[in-house]
Amino acid sequence: MWCHSCREEYEDVDAGTCKECYEEASETEEELKREIEDLKAKVSFLRLCSPIDPHLPASPSAATADISLHTWSSGSDCVVYAPIPAHKAVLMSRSPVFKAMLESEMEESQSGTIKIADVSYTVLQTFIHYLYTAEALLDEQMACDLLVLAERYQVKHLKVFCEKFMISKVNGETAVMSFAFAHRHNAGMLLETALALILDNMSMLTAREEYRELVEKDPRLVVEIYEAYLTRQVNTAPRE
After folding, report:
1. May I ask the CATH class of domain 170-240?
2. Which CATH code fits 52-155?
3. Where is the BTB domain (predicted)?
4. Which of 89, 203, 216, 233 lies deepest, with the highest CB count within 10 Å?
């Protein structure tokens, strides 16, 4: 595809292209490469359980499930939700934590029940759905909650999926919170993105409420921010 200026400048369409078209084509190629890599990772993830049982259903159902997952809301108005059915083979193939749990003599293996606290019913449903399909409808909160579960159960593909979504949403207003979250959950890509945004807006950092909370709750992260800022200053300073 050639822009209007290219058509006017080059009589032979193979003769060349303008800088804008070249840059646009390069960006499109990079996006296509990233999409292909994402699809390859998804296929690899979904194939994990095929050597165990190729006849497993594409989604959990109570009729064929051999294990159930439970969560509940804590507090004075404790709510117990219906169990979420699943298949041991799928859980074990997707998560080394589930694999160790269900292959051992632990209570979960004996009872056929896995209890997961500190997670909402909707998040747990989405988590289990992802283990079967490698798909999830994300918003900012769901991405955070799923990333925490993905880290807890070592579901690397899901963690990367959530992290990429969070990177696409992080901005100058949310950079400090994203930086602290990434630190807590070993989310390296998100950490780098959030830190870069913080360093680009250092003049406004101390005015933010999130910064003051960070000073109170985790001052070592504040030190890390300033160390990174000083390193950038040194590396970008003009050389004599």
Report:
1. mainly alpha
2. 3.30.710.10
3. 65-140
4. 89
